[in-house]
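S.,

Sequence below, as promised.
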Amino acid sequence: MKCIINRRAEFSASHRYWLPELSDAENQERFGGCARFPGHGHNYVLYVSMEGDLDEYGMVLNLSDVKQVIKREVTGQLNFSYLNDVWAEFQQTLPTTESMARVIWQRLAPHLPIVRIQLFEHPELWADYEGNNMEAYLTISTHFSAAHRLALPHLTLEQNSEIYGKCARVNGHGHNYHLEVTVKGEIDPRTGMLVDLVALQKAVDDYVVEPFDHTFLNKDIPYFAEVVPTAENIAVHIRDLLQNPIAQIGAKLHRVKLIESPNNSAEVFCSDRSENTPQQQPAFAEV
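The prediction came back faster than expected:
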């Protein structure tokens, strides 16, 4: 029986986004503050996913052995390092989050049956790599606060209350929404980037966060005048709002996940997701 196991590891390292073939002004224009000398650092969190058959002891792999491999091949070398210099790969391709995930895969693949590398640069930015040449996934996380009411306009309060419970109360209620936006694309072999991160953050801010933040969704967002703003419907609308702006900056929107509360979330994918993409997690009505 096949099973996927995951191992978590950490390391701290610094890096700089700077290309010697560009002038200081050109590097500053392309990479912003990340081009500053001597660089900046992060506390990275790494997840290594591995697949295999269960053995007679009920394990895919001995996790003590896995821990030693990850330490020997990756974290022992990267911890407290200047990434641009530590591995030859990062002298050819800048050590962005997505580029690092790809190189870590290459370092571990000869030793472990990996199926995914997930690398967090910080809690609001991470990359996934699944061994598909230069293709990777990059996720940014942000938030907005908004109120809504769950009610169909053609139903009475009593009828809406039967469907939506307390969420149908006439004055609505609010949430601090957390939003994850995942894009996919090809890693540039020189800059290490699959998308301009500043442009991606600006698209999400301009099309979602700024219009949605501190609103009553039913009344302030025209789309929800006729569509009930459940977490599911909000996620679908955000997906539709972001697909074209993200395509215009050279990436492809892959997934939108909206976390309404610690108990409730919804996620939607773009229609071209592959059969290997994990299935959509169920979304739950508010309780």
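The first helix runs from residue 24 to 31.

Coffee later?
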